[in-house]
Amino acid sequence: MARLDQVITNIVDIFLEYANDEGRKHQLNKDELKKVLQQEIQSPELKEKINADDIEEVMGVLDKNHDGEVNFREFCRCISDLAKCYYQKKTGRGGKKNRGNEPAAED
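Above: the chain's sequence. Below: its structure in token form.
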């Protein structure tokens, strides 16, 4: 399987595995989300961006429709944000600070 195929199928499979654990099907409740964050994210750089110990705050950030659960779309937003953080860490680029306001190169 190609790498991107594997990434996409892994994201869907992880979501479904945890979302079908308890509570409403195809939704992550607080306990399920906490398990995902604790068990599936091991990189210190990514763990510091979403703190599984402070699940209330995490839910507030991810739960855009305020239904107390995280649906697949909200989960994908989380994964996308983590990927952006990793990209920024790896390249030193991609932050919103000073976007378009780069200082002119000096001669």
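Residues 98-107 have pLDDT under 50 and may be disordered.
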